[in-house]
Specification:
Length: 207
């Protein structure tokens, strides 16, 4: 029977994210690229859990996947719209791990080994987050630094979440160049070009 909750005993496959691997993160402009979310905001697929709450940082393999996992998280496929205000305070910036990170694999054979499928863990609706966060909690309990999966929004690229009590700020490093500010300029133009290819229009009701 396909597992909807973590099996016991819980023995996930390991995935090593090598030091220096390029990563991208879309985040609010009040944070830095290596700053973990301490537990603020709504529940997400793999956060929040623990007492005290385990801080998390989400990242992705490419800029496009980072956008899909954040700005487009709730935008369905096909022609659509994104409000300008949803992007105006967001930044996409590169970062990289400074050491190898040991992650649990919730993709490919890693899912099969745990007796489940992506549609039950990494590709659910938000209404299932109360259940999917239990997978992150199980991963955390086995000592991993975080977990890796194939982005449901862009399934050619990996997505990651890191646990802030296992991955220190010094274990991640900001990359000096390559960031994009979506409010205006080149960053906005890049975002418009990318979304145009997905048939998504940025609209600003105030104008």
């Amino acid at each position: 029977m396909v597992k909807l909750v973590p099996p016991a005993p819980f023995r996930p496959h390991a995935y090593t994210l090598a030091a220096g691997t390029p990563l991208f993160r879309v985040f609010g402009n009040t944070r830095t690229v290596t700053e973990f979310n301490p537990g603020q905001g709504s529940r997400t697929r793999f956060a929040f859990f623990g007492d005290p709450v385990v801080p998390v940082l989400y990242a992705a393999e490419t800029e496009e996947a980072a956008v899909c996992e954040s700005l487009l998280h709730d935008v369905p496929p096909g022609p659509g719209k994104l409000l300008y205000r949803q992007a105006a305070d967001r930044v996409c910036a590169p970062l990289e791990p400074t050491r190898d990170l040991r992650l649990a694999s919730l993709m490919g054979d890693g899912l099969r080994a745990l007796g489940t499928e992506a549609k039950h863990v990494t590709a659910t609706m938000a209404s299932q987050y109360g259940r999917t966060v239990r997978w992150a909690e199980a991963v955390h309990s086995t000592g991993f630094d975080g977990l890796a999966w194939m982005s449901n929004r862009r399934n050619t690229d990996r997505a990651y979440v890191f646990f802030g009590d296992r991955v220190a700020v010094d274990d991640l490093s900001a990359v000096p160049s390559g960031g994009r500010i979506f409010a205006a300029g080149d960053g906005f133009d890049w975002l418009v070009d990318y979304l145009t290819g997905l048939k998504i229009e940025i609209i600003n009701p105030g104008f």
